[in-house]
Amino acid sequence: MAHLLYFALIREQIGHPEEQMSLPPGVTTVQKLIDHLRSCNDHYARAFADMQKVRVAVNEEYVSLHHPISANDEIAFFPPMTGGRL
Description:
Order of helices and strands: EHEHHEEE
Distance between the termini: 41 Å
CATH architecture: Roll
Radius of gyration: 13 Å
Structural class: alpha+beta
Helix content: 25-40%
Number of strands: 5
Strand order of the largest sheet: 2-1-5-3-4
Shape: globular
CATH superfamily: Beta-grasp domain
CATH class: Alpha Beta
Number of domains: 1
Largest sheet: 5 strands, mixed
């Protein structure tokens, strides 16, 4: 099962910090997963409405929406972040 993690505002909009999911047939990329999640309910639809405000990591590496995913991946969704020293 894929392990999905949600952080910050995305977590608040979805209503939980993580979940395990069997990827449906045909869900083979990050974009296809997001499309599937959006179709599940309004919470996901709101959380993923503006993908300019969402970053994705698969197995702790930043990836594009076209990145392939598989059943045992950890897929994390979070807002863009800044950091560093002042």
